[in-house]
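Lay summary. Proteins are chains of building blocks that fold into shapes, and those shapes determine what they do. In this project we predict the shape from the chain. Here is one chain we studied, written as its sequence of building blocks.
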Amino acid sequence: MRKRILVIEDDLSIGQVLELNLADEGFVVELAIDGETGLAKLANYPYDLLILDVMLPGIDGLEVCRRLRSQSIYTPIIILSSKAAEVNRIVGLEMGADDYVTKPFSLLELVARVRALIRRVEALKIDSSQKTLSTIVTERLRIDPQAHKVWLEGQPVTLTVREFDLLYFFANHPDQIYTRMELLDHVWGYSHDGYEHTVNSHINRLRAKIESNPAKPRQILTVWGIGYKFSASVETGFS
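And here is the predicted shape, written in a compact code that computers can read:
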């Protein structure tokens, strides 16, 4: 079954280019030019992915993202932002977007990210339906892959799909060191030179959510000159 993508982009020329190119890749694509129209479409149909511009008239992309993440149905989100909107891009990721592409962008890059995100979400669905995944418990964390939820010292932590994938992958491989490119391959589903900053930004946000002092992390550690690891010095158990 062909995957359905909603593009919310007020620049009609960009929206139409995305619509045409994604359709050529086999996706069913719909276009909305403002946040209100986009939210109405999202309320009426469960899309497989949303491509969301930050700067929209009326209801902006950040508010669209916030409202969508308040709902029970999870729709993967890729946000579009210009380099001048760095703060908005970061806030969008904090609100629950799964990935971002900076304008001006490469269509090949965008398609790669769309396919990787859809593939990752589908893999999670298959894992959940076909096998029982282990809940991971550390001194401070409980990570439940069935419910796709995380608790920090008994309190729920809100993570995006990608943040959850990254944390669960780390916790499943304690003390094993991974380069940024390896993490891109294992967690994001693609390996492209120059995208290592994606790993860095997700790790920084993850640390901000699960570490007592993100500047001095206890569990997600930097191995200088190599990459990152999930520390096994914190007692870890599986149930």
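What the prediction tells us: The chain has a mean pLDDT of 83.
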